[in-house]
């Protein structure tokens, strides 16, 4: 889905308003955070947090390594 949005001045920055259909489709609410990533094709807005992904990868390695101990603690 491609939608045109206008950029507006917001204090010392600029901002864009997403169309309601897009916000509803991606379950975005006021206050939610998006990450703006500079790509060769342009700006990518995503709820994907690269820092969280790295932290989650560490968790997954630990959960796999200590799965038996975690299962025992869950009892």
Q: Determine the strand fraction and express it as a percent band.
A: 15-25%
Proportion in helices? 40-55%
Say how many strands there are: 4
Nearest-angstrom radius of gyration?
Answer: 19 Å
Total count of domains = 1
Largest sheet: 2 strands, antiparallel
Task: Report the principal-axis shape.
Answer: elongated
Q: What's the mean pLDDT score?
A: 87
Query: What kind of oligomer do you see?
Result: single chain
Residue ranges: pLDDT <50 for 5 or more in a row? none
Distance between the termini: 47 Å
Order of helices and strands: EEHEEHH
Write a concise keyword list for the protein shown above.
single chain; 75 residues; alpha+beta; two-stranded antiparallel ribbon; 3 helices; 4 strands; elongated
């Amino acid at each position: 889905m491609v939608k045109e949005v206008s950029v507006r001045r917001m204090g010392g920055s600029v901002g864009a308003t997403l169309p309601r259909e897009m916000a509803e489709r991606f379950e975005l609410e006021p206050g939610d955070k998006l990450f703006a990533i500079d790509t060769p094709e342009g700006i990518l807005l995503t709820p994907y947090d690269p820092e969280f992904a790295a932290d989650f990868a560490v968790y997954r390695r630990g959960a796999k390594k200590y799965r038996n101990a975690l299962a025992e603690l869950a009892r």
